[in-house]
Design a protein that fits this description.
This protein has 281 residues and is α+β, with helices and mostly antiparallel strands. Helix content is 16%, strand content 38%. It has a 17-stranded mixed β-sheet that branches. A hairpin with a 2-residue loop joins strand 11 and strand 12. It is globular, with a radius of gyration of 19 Å.
Length: 281
Amino acid sequence: MSNIQHKFETPFIKMHGLGNDFVIIDCRNEEFSFSDDQIRLLGNRNLGVGFDQLVLIFKSSKEDVHAFLKFWNSDGSKSSTCGNATRCVADILMNENGLEVVNISTNAEIIKCTKLKNGQISINMGIPKIKWHEIPLSQECDTTKLPIDGNPIATSFGNPHCTFFVDDLNKLSISEIGKKTEIHPIFPKKTNVQIAQVLNDNTIKVKVWERGSGITLASGSSACAVTFAAKRLNLTKDVVKIILDGGFLNVDCREDGVWLSGDINYVFSGRLSSYFFNELE
């Protein structure tokens, strides 16, 4: 057994929303920063803690905003927003302060978060962008029918999404479709990918490929993108249950934005060893 005296520093919390999992680090009192290589190692499910996204919590300089969040995918790339991670952090902030409503800022927008009577966290993901240059796409086109195989629809919730509506989800591979579509030239910043089967006018079954992370059991922004895309195509009503591999999320398209709600779970808390990143040196 090694006689090296490890120091355990860099505290973190592991949480998930329907299996969409996160390592959350509080930087409000002590700031931590990580290189791309360190994020990839930390996100490795065999060598590190493992996550879909890394989330850092910072103090916000804006009035009535309780925290500012930054997100990274497991491959080290940055993400502008993450719905399920925001719901997890909202619960942390609410428990700290005995609040039932908090506002959280991201690089995309300020997100209002509320605790429902059943204990679930509901957040307003805002008004999605649907113009080709806002998503962004590399060429002008009809965003409800992209000029690529399968004619998917594009949406942005601060991060780009590409949704394929299909007749039978079980006949398609999200791995194959996601891997190819994420890096399609029409998406200059890559894209999240969903294949979706409308079961009825208020239920959609969805499989998700996340930009920078790959297959995931759930995704909040993807659930919102699918719901809003279905509404644009007149496939569903305003309130939709999204069934994902990890469970289900409820999405409500309102005038003030698209609201996302569902369960969140605490897994464990810990501290990284001071020697954890040594192998990268």
